[in-house]
Here is the input.
Amino acid sequence: MPTAPPHVLIIGAGTGGLCLAHGLRRAGISVAVYERHQHRSGGLLGYRVGIGPTGTRALRDCLPPDVFATFLATCAQPPRYFNVLTQKLTETASFELRPAVDPVHTEHSVNRMTMRQVLLTGLTDVVHFDKTFIRYEQHDDGAVTAHFADGTTATGDLLVAADGTHSAVRRQYLPHAVIRDAGTINIATRIPLTPHTRDLLAERVRTGISLIFGTGGTMGVLHVMEFPWHADRRIKNGVSADRAALLRAWPGLSQGTSTDHINLIIWSTARRFPADVMQLRGDDLIGLALDLTPNWHPHLRELLSRADPGSALPIRVSTSEPTPPWKSTTVTLLGDAIHTMTPGRGVGANTALRDARLLCEQLARVVEGDKTLVQAVADYEAAMVPYGFARVAESLNRSGTNGDDRMYRPVVGRLALLGARGYFGVTSRVPRLRRRFVDDFHTYEGDQD
Here is the structure.
């Protein structure tokens, strides 16, 4: 028999939390989201995230159709190539990616800031900003009360931690869960896309994602983000009439969405960075990036020098260790709050979205009377924990994401660099290996359901 829908408290208005909120509302489940930042643009990183088929399916199933259409309309141009370059911009390999056959089975280039604005569409009545979670308490009747730093509280039937790598909920609920330093640090920069900066890049680099294997243990990734609107928010020529109308009607277009730019991120083992790197910002951080890349191509160094100082950000890469099983209750977790991973396979956001979709499906079974709330949580966790930590392991084993990778060792690193370049070079030039690489690339994108 159907039962009364639970009231769900979500801590954190990130990608996974907001996707879950949409899905629960569509399922007729009451929800409230609590975000520690003071406004809808607070704490956002304006960098690219790749949303593949796994994430796109979750968004399609959880979001209202008009919001999902807005998500598709606000994506940047998808990558056409996966390139491997040297620090001198010499092409080691270039793989042409498959064209999109439908909106779901493709890789979407998404700006985090823009995606936040999309996911907030239609949720203004349930998202509460400036609410810093400090602790929860569980009651004998199963209810959960969240306490916030401003002295307010909220009570619901289920508390979902969607508050990221440094989750305050996880610290209380699973104090034995370990988040450790992966041993690498990224410096992320954003460069305005102008006719001049565009001309600094070859056509395949402008239209693809490029992995840079630099000498001396410094690596990079570069991608160009081009959106359907100009800097003044006018819709560009060539955008279909339907999408143009959708974008003009979308409130988020005026809410600090990004405009065309180049993302250039460099990283290396943490041992190569100064002790105070995490406190550096602006020109100091850009200067450090230039110091780490003295022998890079002048065009790459010019891009770094033209980076927006306000966009430069140091990121200490973290990773979760597998957490021993726990007894399911009316508190659960999703995304980075439970399985933080390195950016090595680029699936962190996709896995969080997968979590949201799965949890929503399980909670809908509660409303239908098929399961108790705790059983639904248990079934969600029984599936989420294995695939989540499998993605963690795969991302950590990706070349260059682990600070102990031999790529960063003084002598062995040179051999590792030559080996990596050699692998990509041979793979790209042998038709059978080339096809297998592209097949594996697309298979990995879509095999996570």
